[in-house]
Specification:
By secondary structure, the protein is an alpha/beta fold. It has a single domain, classed as P-loop containing nucleotide triphosphate hydrolases (Rossmann fold, 3-Layer(aba) Sandwich). 35% of the residues lie in helices and 10% in strands. Strands 2-3-1-4-5 form a five-stranded parallel beta sheet, with helices on both faces. Strand 2, helix 2 and strand 3 form a beta-alpha-beta unit. The two termini are 24 Å apart.
Length: 255
């Protein structure tokens, strides 16, 4: 276990974590989960050490529960549980490879916990416009759009508090990823320390726009839009002008 490098992908549901995991696991130096029989091959569903997101309501809700946030002082943050996770996940990895990748959206609230269990771990955290996340999630949840936006922002805000305590993080916005996927993927390869690779995936760059059009019909009745604008701006997003991608000051190259 100590000879491997673990790469954990996290973000809220519908933020591009599955897409990124599917692409990166195709790299010849990386092993990721596939054909596991669980939704989106998520590692949270292939272990029995900690509760998965559905315990706390699932997509669009898990971040409202304090128990979803786990850090190095959590009672489950033990060496025994690290070994248990490695044993359970190891059934689905090719352990002949050095780089082992695991993707579960709730990892965004478990970075410090996972870092404690696996000191040689690194994290790729994805952000996506809260409006796009909300409308994409509502396709299979009955939660309201304001609640879904609030949930996304809360998860991002919680992660931001954890960020200074993490040793290896690559921050990525979905919008920049889909607009220039090849450059983004080569940048990730360089950050990981693996050879550049020709990834063959077709990625549609303008999916957010349809959600922004739905928002334009909805936002007039949303009384918190101005109150939440500053919260969204921290991450480079705007509820008032959703098509505009703003600078996010905390997104330094790597930390």
């Amino acid at each position: 276990m100590g000879e491997k490098t673990f790469i954990f992908i996290g973000g809220v549901h519908k933020s591009g974590t599955s897409l990124l995991h599917e692409i990166l696991r195709s790299h010849p130096e990386i092993s990721g989960f596939s054909n596991t029989g669980v939704p989106e091959d998520e590692g949270q569903l292939l272990q029995s050490v900690y509760p998965p997101a559905f315990t706390y309501g699932g997509a669009g809700r898990f971040g409202f529960h304090e128990e979803s946030h786990m850090e190095e002082h959590h009672p489950l943050a033990t060496q025994e549980n690290a070994e248990a996770l490695f044993t359970q996940w190891g059934q689905y990895w090719d352990l002949n490879k050095h780089y082992l990748i695991e993707k579960s959206p709730p990892n965004i609230l478990k970075t410090r916990f996972l870092q404690h269990l696996f000191p040689n771990s690194r994290f790729i955290i994805l952000f996506r416009h809260p409006i796009a996340v909300a409308f994409a999630t509502r396709k299979w949840r009955t939660t309201s759009i304001p609640s879904l936006i609030d949930h996304t922002l809360r998860c991002y805000e919680s992660f931001l508090l954890d960020l200074p305590l993490l040793s290896g993080v690559h921050l990525l916005r979905y919008e920049e990823f889909v607009n220039d996927p090849q450059s983004t993927l080569q940048e990730i390869c360089s950050w990981i320390g693996i050879k550049p690779h020709s990834f063959r995936y077709e990625i549609t760059p303008h999916i957010n726009q349809a959600y922004f059009e739905q928002w334009s019909d909805y936002s007039g009745a949303f009384r918190k839009v101005h109150a939440w604008e500053e919260r969204a701006n921290v991450f480079g997003y705007s509820l008032l002008n959703p098509g505009q991608l703003l600078p996010a000051r905390f997104m330094i190259p790597d930390n």
